[in-house]
């Protein structure tokens, strides 16, 4: 079974605060991501790459279409799932590395990273061990691990975010510009981590502006401009 | 999360004479689920909370609660004795103003211990040990156990009120603007504490707030109310990041960026 | 045979007495429950026993023998005045002997001599509601009684232990009556609490200002509230009465001079006099001191 299949997805924004102007974003989005495959969404800024990623995670609602996920051996349509089911899918099946870390006051970087495992019922000490391994792999200085990431630099926050997204073995992993504020060394680390995920059979869907990284990780590029909505009338 | 809800609300309406409080509210709440109710003053969110917590009787509609023995009861059909027992064992209510939820002239320890004594605990040493344990969990130092909340800061009072509510391991907690009236730094600490406790204890909660940041941090789902009606509801991050209704878009766009 | 032409027997008019008797009967039927009644103005200020006087006036008959004590003493102003009042308005016999009395009106003590069947003890009560100091709303305390929600009463005892290391409440110590109602015993010392339990006498409580009457019928279970690890205890005195050498009774401390001199004497003056008449002598009784000189 294909872990992620997107069918005929459509999305428009209605901006009520600007006299109800309707902004079509994408239409007829169709693609699949197979296990062990990394699909990269391509296209210029504003083409709707980020919106597609957010719809696939359930963060944005969809106007039409389906987002099929293989969850617990069954096909589940995230596009029509109720909030509880979306939360269950996020806990067990689909993970997301956002562009920016949403920090929580007073929670240490280590616990931020370990949390997705803890939520799934893992032992807290084991989850923290795994988190330490990942943070070390991403070269985050050890003295930062026990601090809340709110005051970290952009690159440091992003590495925390990546570790948090990679700590579980979710079958689908979404990546929104994970390498944007990283130096060459850490970019290389992320590339190798993506390779490991692929080897483990994870289906990855991402946005990478860095062409160098994109060519290293992408098995296939889906051109989002193909989903541009036809302008009505 | 288990597969059976804890609370089922159907067609709940409250009119004050001809004036509308809230109308046609429907939702289900599951164990471990936090629901935020947002809206501005006068939107009906506090009326809804007061109806749910049986402080007000609705004009029509039902709210069924799954009791600890798994029997479903319409909370408005409970006898006063059953209702009050539920309120001090299986439910909690955190008021915006801690003075409304605390006994200001008895010690912190007795404030926390009162619910235990109310359900028949008669061993001083055990009651005190529980009180000290709970004060610790809400980050109040053990040496304050015999002080009256009158001598506490606003944030400490609010944390004490939370401990007082949670000591009997309730399954459902109602919160009315739990961080209202607190300094931003104190708010952050309280939010983090609440977030931890809710997750750790698997509490279901209904939180009324006008602060969208509170809703984002604490809740799984949210309902937006306006003029007594629920105009939009769903997954918290989806409602906040992709609001559909004009009023919700206005609310979200009105947040000040720091 | 009216004592003074201008007064009805026992001061109150018959309608009022009936009203109070109905309240008393209801109170006896529901031990420990506070029955509201239409308290009247009495020819004395509130706080001087208007509740007790109304209860006594409603139950006293021409053949009764009345004893009145104030803090255990028959000879203090309040006790003397109330005795004189009933001698005047009801022409009843009065006594200071506990054993001879049929009605004993009391402020803040229960006599040391065990009360017998047929005797009635009438308490003067300032604040009938034991939950009042913790819960100011009458509507709420009534519901708490109705639903037997008494956790709050233990909050008070908890506070005592937290502050003093033990239950420091020494008077007005709350009791549970017949496993149902929590009741204030009026400001008697807790030393007297055990005497209420299974007493052969009828115990009536009148609160004039607060307009409440409650009762403990004969042979009723009266248990002082406590914690498992801090059980109820009565006061103990390290020395016997300085006048009659009694032990196991409630003693008052009397200051003798400005140099710290003091003595402990019986609070119950009748009991003390009885003992001295029977030949008991304490360390500071006149004859012992004379003999020592």
What does this entry look like structurally?
The complex is a heterotrimer of chains A (233), B (258) and C (293). By secondary structure, chain A is α/β, with parallel strands linked by helices. Chain A is built from 7 helices and 9 strands, in the order βββαββαβαααβαβαβ. In chain A, helix 3 packs across helix 4 and helix 3 runs parallel beside helix 5. Chain B is globular, with a radius of gyration of 18 Å. In chain B, the strands form 2 sheets. Chain B has a 6-stranded mixed β-sheet with strand order 6-7-8-3-9-10, sandwiched between helices. Chain B has a 4-stranded antiparallel β-sheet with strand order 2-1-4-5, covered by helices on one side. In chain B, helix 4 packs across helix 5, helix 4 packs parallel to helix 6 and helix 5 crosses helix 6. Helices cover 38% and strands 25% of the residues of chain B. Chain B is built from 10 helices and 10 strands. With 293 residues, chain C is an alpha/beta fold. Chain C is built from 8 helices and 12 strands. In chain C, helix 1 packs across helix 2. The termini of chain C are far apart. Chains A and B meet through helix 2 of A and helix 7, helix 9 and helix 10 of B.
Descriptive terms for the model:
heterotrimer, A: alpha/beta, four-stranded antiparallel beta sheet, globular, B: 258 residues, alpha/beta, six-stranded mixed beta sheet
Give the N-terminus to C-terminus distance of chain B in angstroms. 35 Å
Q: So what's the overall shape of chain C?
A: globular
Structural class of chain C: alpha/beta
Tally of DSSP helical segments of chain B: 10
**DSSP summary: helix tally of chain C:** 8
The counted number of beta strands of chain C is 12
How much helicity do the residues of chain B have?
Answer: 25-40%
Class derived from helix and strand content of chain B: alpha/beta
Task: Please indicate the percent range of residues of chain C in DSSP E strands (runs of 2 or more).
Answer: 15-25%
Query: Overall pLDDT of chain B, averaged?
Result: 93
The beta-strand count of chain B equals: 10
Main pleated sheet of chain B: 6 strands, mixed
Sheet with the most strands: spatial strand order of chain C = 1-9-8-5-4-2-3
- Low-confidence stretches of chain C at least 5 residues in length (pLDDT < 50)? none
State the helicity of chain C in percent bands. 25-40%
């Amino acid at each position: 079974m294909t872990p992620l299949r997107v069918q005929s997805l459509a999305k428009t924004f209605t901006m009520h605060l600007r006299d109800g102007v309707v902004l079509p974003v994408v239409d007829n989005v169709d693609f699949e991501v197979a296990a062990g495959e990394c699909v990269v969404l391509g296209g210029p800024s504003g083409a709707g790459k980020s919106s597609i990623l957010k719809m696939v995670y359930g963060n944005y609602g969809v106007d039409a279409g389906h987002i099929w996920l293989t969850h617990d051996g069954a096909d589940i349509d995230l596009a029509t799932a109720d909030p509880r089911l979306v939360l269950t899918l996020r806990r067990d099946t689909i993970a997301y590395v956002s562009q920016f870390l949403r920090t929580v006051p007073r929670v240490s970087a280590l616990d931020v990273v370990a949390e997705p495992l803890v939520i799934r019922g893992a032992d807290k000490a084991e989850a923290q061990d795994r988190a330490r391994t990942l943070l070390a792999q991403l070269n985050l200085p050890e003295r930062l691990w026990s601090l809340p990431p709110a005051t970290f630099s952009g690159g440091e926050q992003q590495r925390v975010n990546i570790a948090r997204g990679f700590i579980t073995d979710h079958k689908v992993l979404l990546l929104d510009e994970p390498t944007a504020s990283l130096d060459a060394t850490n970019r290389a680390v992320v590339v190798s981590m993506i390779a490991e995920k692929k080897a483990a059979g994870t289906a990855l869907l991402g946005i990478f502006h860095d062409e160098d990284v994109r060519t290293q990780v992408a098995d296939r590029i889906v051109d989002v401009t193909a989903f541009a909505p036809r302008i009505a009338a | 999360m288990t597969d059976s809800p804890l609370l089922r609300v159907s067609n709940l309406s409250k009119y004050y004479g001809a004036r509308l409080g809230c109308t046609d509210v429907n939702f289900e709440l599951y164990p471990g689920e936090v629901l935020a109710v947002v809206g501005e003053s006068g939107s009906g969110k506090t009326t809804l909370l007061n109806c749910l917590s049986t402080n007000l009787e609705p004009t029509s509609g039902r709210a069924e609660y799954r009791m600890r023995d798994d029997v479903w009861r319409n909370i408005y059909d409970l006898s006063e004795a059953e209702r009050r027992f539920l309120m001090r064992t299986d439910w909690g209510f955190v008021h915006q103003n801690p003075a409304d939820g605390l006994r200001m002239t008895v010690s912190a320890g007795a404030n926390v211990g009162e619910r235990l004594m109310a359900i028949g605990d008669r061993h001083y040493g055990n009651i005190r040990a529980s009180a000290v344990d709970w004060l610790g969990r809400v980050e109040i130092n053990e040496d304050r156990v015999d002080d009256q909340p009158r001598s506490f800061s606003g944030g400490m009072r609010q944390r004490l009120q939370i401990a007082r509510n949670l000591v009997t391991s309730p399954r459902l907690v109602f919160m009315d603007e739990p961080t209202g009236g607190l300094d931003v730094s104190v708010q952050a600490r309280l939010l983090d504490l609440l977030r931890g406790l809710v997750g750790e204890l698997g509490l279901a909660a209904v939180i009324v707030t006008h602060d969208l940041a509170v809703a984002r941090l604490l809740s799984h789902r949210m309902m937006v109310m306006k003029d007594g009606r629920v105009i939009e509801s769903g997954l918290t991050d989806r409602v906040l990041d992709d609001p559909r209704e004009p009023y919700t878009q206005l609310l979200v766009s009105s947040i000040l960026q720091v | 045979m009216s004592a003074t032409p201008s007064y009805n027997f026992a001061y109150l008019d018959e309608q009022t007495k009936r009203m109070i008797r109905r309240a008393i009967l209801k109170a006896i039927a529901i031990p420990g429950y506070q029955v509201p009644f239409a308290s009247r103005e009495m020819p004395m200020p509130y706080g001087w026993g208007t509740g007790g006087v109304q209860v006594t006036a409603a139950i006293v008959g021409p053949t009764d023998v009345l004893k009145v004590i104030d803090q255990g003493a028959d000879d203090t102003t309040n006790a003397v005045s109330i005795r004189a009042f009933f001698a005047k308005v009801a022409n009843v016999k009065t006594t200071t002997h506990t054993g001879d009395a049929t009605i004993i009106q009391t402020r803040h003590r229960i006599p040391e001599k065990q009360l017998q069947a047929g005797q009635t003890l009438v308490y003067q009560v300032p604040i009938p509601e034991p939950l009042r100091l913790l819960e100011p709303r009458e509507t709420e305390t009534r519901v708490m009684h109705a639903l037997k929600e008494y956790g709050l009463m233990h909050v008070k005892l908890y506070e005592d232990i937290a502050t003093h290391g033990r239950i420091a409440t020494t008077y007005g110590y709350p009791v549970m009556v017949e496993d149902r109602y929590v009741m204030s015993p009026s400001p008697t010392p807790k030393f007297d609490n055990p005497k209420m339990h299974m007493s052969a006498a009828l115990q009536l409580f009148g609160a004039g200002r607060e307009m409440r009457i409650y009762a403990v019928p004969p042979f009723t279970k009266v248990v002082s509230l406590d914690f498992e690890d801090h059980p109820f205890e009565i006061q103990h005195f390290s020395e016997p009465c300085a006048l009659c050498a009694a032990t196991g009774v409630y003693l008052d401390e009397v200051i003798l001079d400005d140099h710290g001199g003091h003595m402990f004497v019986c609070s119950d003056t009748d009991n003390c006099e009885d003992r001295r008449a029977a030949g008991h002598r304490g360390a500071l009784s006149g004859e012992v001191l004379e003999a020592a000189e």
